[in-house]
Request: fold
Amino acid sequence: MTGESVPPSSFTGLGYGGRPRLARARLQVAGQEAELSRNAWRAGREGRALRVRVVGREYRYQERGNRRHHVLERAGARVEMTRSSASAAAETLRGAAGGAVDSVDLSLAILLEGVHTRNLSLRGALISAPGRLLDRLGG
Reply:
């Protein structure tokens, strides 16, 4: 993700369906490595949310409603994103910002929409459990 007044950001992870997924993920924002954490087995969407610490901020990224809707939040700022479809080939992204949102927030929200985040939902966590187990066993 690059643009005028937007800090350069990148996300890499093991691939799935043409998109990187959260397994072995690396996120960089403005040249800084982000600290990522999540627990796919927690109860509720908030418990399974992806937590991101970068550029002195703490974010929570979670699914809302269904796999087309996500929200990125930090203290005082919120970006809600909607894809035109749940597939990697979504043609349109829509967003709504609230609070003190800046270019870092927008960059992260848009970038994360390109990531395969199935295990942020309980159904997705259950479906992807065998693959996660094999990833851990394979090193």
Notes: The first helix runs from residue 44 to 48. The helical segments are 44-48, 103-112, 122-138. DSSP finds three helices and eleven strands in the chain. The chain has a mean pLDDT of 83.
